């Protein structure tokens, strides 16, 4: 069966959309997401546009700040400081990757933890690790939501995560562990990847390389989550999993596009509302 990220994300966004009038009545304004993009990376431009469009659909305020490629690091940090202090902004994200002359780590740490809707700030990363309340990164959070949409319990299952990035692999492994899965982390140096993936009741693939997982590597009935977004020479998109062969074996599988991608954006909307509420409940 296909795990339809578009459909699940629509449910999430519709639920948020319904809450907007109540939030506005109670707090005097709607949540506001501010998105900063530096430069012309075509994929980033598409992602950013989709984020702003989702905010509009949900009925939140949104701001898109587009800066030229040659924007200096100091200039970007000054803008972030200004938006940190701006009480009309609840969620603030800087689209990655950034141009090479800007230190990403510095930029991520500059965003105040209270507005870090990406969950990338070191304090959010640490809080997730030790189990404190925090902004959970959008893609991992969306993946768990997709798995839950199957109705299959996670507890006790063997989950294999292929890929160990800070944005996806590591946090999704922690979220699965928190739900009492037995988690195996595999990566580019893993020997005999297939021997691990064949054990996976839940298989999350986030490597960024086409055909890392093929049908012969999937356990029959498994839930397969494909996080990859790879642009082919002909312009089409492919995941990290060979969909055709894997779909023959899997119980559930996400398509690319239309699987994880829309969930990331829906979770960003949720995180923005959560930051908005947290700021008001702590005031
Ligand atoms: N680039 C790729 N994924 C993401 C994301 O989730 N957030 C940001 N800010 N940049 C990204």
Question: Which helices and strands appear, and what pairs or packs with what?
Answer:
Elements: H1 5-27, E1 32-38, H2 42-58, E2 61-67, H3 73-85, E3 91-94, H4 104-110, H5 122-130, H6 138-149, E4 158-162, H7 169-178, E5 182-186, H8 193-197, E6 202-205, E7 223-226, E8 230-231, E9 237-238, H9 243-249, E10 252-253, H10 260-282
Parallel strand pairs: 1-2, 1-3, 4-5, 4-6, 6-7, 7-10
Antiparallel strand pairs: 8-9
Helix pairs in contact: 1-10, 2-10, 6-7, 6-10
Bound molecules: guanine (GUN).
Structure description:
This protein is globular. Helix 1 (5-27) packs parallel to helix 10 (260-282), helix 2 (42-58) crosses helix 10 (260-282) and helix 6 (138-149) packs across helix 7. It is of the alpha/beta class. The protein has 2 domains: 28-112, Leucine Dehydrogenase, chain A, domain 1 (Rossmann fold); 138-261, Rossmann fold. It has 10 helices and 10 strands. The strands form 3 sheets. A 5-stranded parallel β-sheet has the order 5-4-6-7-10, with helices on both faces. The protein has helices at residues 5-27, 42-58, 73-85, 104-110, 122-130, 138-149, 169-178, 193-197, 243-249, 260-282, and strands at 32-38, 61-67, 91-94, 158-162, 182-186, 202-205, 223-226, 230-231, 237-238, 252-253. 45% of the residues lie in helices and 15% in strands. The structure holds guanine. Guanine binds at residues 93-96, 118, 138-139, 167, 264.
